[in-house]
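User: LacI family transcriptional regulator, Cellulomonas rhizosphaerae:
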Amino acid sequence: MPDDASPRVSTLEDVALVAGVSRASVSRVVNGKAGVAAHIVEAVNDAIARTGYVPNRAARSLVTRRSDTVLVVVSGSDTSRAGPWGPGDVLADPFFGRVAGGLMSSLRPRDVHPVLMLAVTDDERSRVLSYVREGSADGVLLVSAQAGDPLPQMLTDAGLPVVLFSRPDHPLPLSYVDVNNRAGGALAADRLVERGCRSVGIVTGPLDIPGAEDRLVGFREAMARHGVAYVPSAAGTFSVESGVAAMSTLLADHRVDGVFASNDNMAVGAILAAQERGLTVPDDVAVVGFDDSTAALMCRPTLTTVRQPIEEMAAEMARLLLERLDVPDQRPSAAIFEPALVERGSA
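Assistant: Predicted structure for LacI family transcriptional regulator:
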């Protein structure tokens, strides 16, 4: 026999009765429609809390034609290419944890749910496109780990909503967020010069990535303004191990007394390489990183670094995508954030 004591599920009609408004008004508020008076929104939300009403997501999707789900995609061109840095390394890096936290801060208040996908093969990239085309997700928040990644172009060509973390490696009509990387490189240069460093070098990231190239250019231009004509460089791949190797090259080939590394992982590697040679950081060689990740606090000495506001950048990334979904014909836009120097023990 049915259990007559089973709790009754609240309906739109119940919410309307408690709020003192029509069922249509409740439906407009629940489905996020524009043009509803603020006092009605407040009354409906209060009634929802009092009645315990839970919207039927399937029914809501029929009305809004939205899944209230977005893909968070970490992509690359080919995991078999030389070098250790790829999508898997992004997920393991503290950088991605900060990105994820920023995304959630924007998505949760809108009751939008992220689904994480990796895309490094042709099949995986096709799966991303199909997932959105079939309506399982409304758009894509894309973190591209390597230059030459075809996915941004594929999503743009397909007319699918997408926002990219960092400037694409060639011009595309899509929205993106980034930090002013050249200004960040200049901050690192200014700090090393302020410490009295005159023979400086740089550990770059892969120079086919725009951000890595911009940090190198910004650093060299600032050093030129300080009268330093030549800045030697050694390339890394954003990993600690590559930072050790690149710093070892700089120390072997040049008598550097200050080094800027294009991310904190490589800066940690640079410190390790200097210490292995019996050098003291910062007395013998000063080191500045970039990102202000947890790695900056875990190394000894703690790392002076250029902070990019990753959480705020990711939150803006999510906001731009939700805005595009609300206004589909909106033109792509870019949001560029300013970096800041965080002084600690290494410089």
